[in-house]
Amino acid sequence: MKRRLFLIAGFIMSYLPLWVIVCFECIVSIIEKDQPLYTEWLALFIVVPIVICNLLLFSIILHKALKERGLQYKVVETKPLKKISSEYLLSYVIPLIAFDFTQWQDMIKFLIIWGFLFLLCWRFWQMPIAWLSMLGFFVSECDLETYDGQLVQKIIISRKPLSRIKGELVTIADIDNNQAIQIGEHLD
């Protein structure tokens, strides 16, 4: 359950800059127009609560993971996860060019495409996590060694870059099978 909630909250929050722009466009449209503004008000009353709820949900999941008793692993290899930056930027640029979020038809078209993107992320258990860097987190792909010498690969979310602690122990709590969050701070 935690894995699914993390995926949903992360997917919705990965579009945070787009949601802010949509709200901005709706507010500007409300200020400038004299005609009925159903689409703009509807967008604001849907987007704002969903974003706030997902921020709270994501925060709760991360805080719960931080309170768990994590497992210690030896960091064998680590590299920053940067390969998704272009996909992340394109996911904002294309909707802003292709859709007018003050028109209900374009809003519906966008939600259909966004829904298909969500289904793909759900199907392959992939969440766009580049947005975490905006919140001050570092995301690294790591090869880790367990206490019994087995190698595992995980994507680790941490407050400090893990590249400086190669060969040292790190304590992590699993968010799902592939993603984890670092517990505690390592020494610089």
How would you sum up this structure, described in words?
By secondary structure, the chain is of the alpha+beta class. It has two domains: 1-67 and 85-127; 70-81 and 129-188, OB fold (Dihydrolipoamide Acetyltransferase, E2P). 50% of the residues lie in helices and 19% in strands. The chain is built from five helices and five strands. It has helices spanning 2-13, 16-32, 38-67, 85-98, 104-124; strands at 71-80, 138-145, 151-158, 169-174, 179-182. Strands 1-2-3-5-4 form a five-stranded mixed β-barrel. Strand 4 (169-174) and strand 5 (179-182) form a beta hairpin. Helix 2 (16-32) packs antiparallel against helix 3 (38-67). The longest helix has 30 residues, at 38-67. The radius of gyration is 19 Å and the shape is elongated. The mean pLDDT is 77.
Outline of the structure:
With 188 residues, the protein is an alpha+beta fold.
Q: Which labels suit this protein?
A:
OB fold (Dihydrolipoamide Acetyltransferase, E2P); 188 residues; 5-stranded mixed beta barrel; alpha+beta
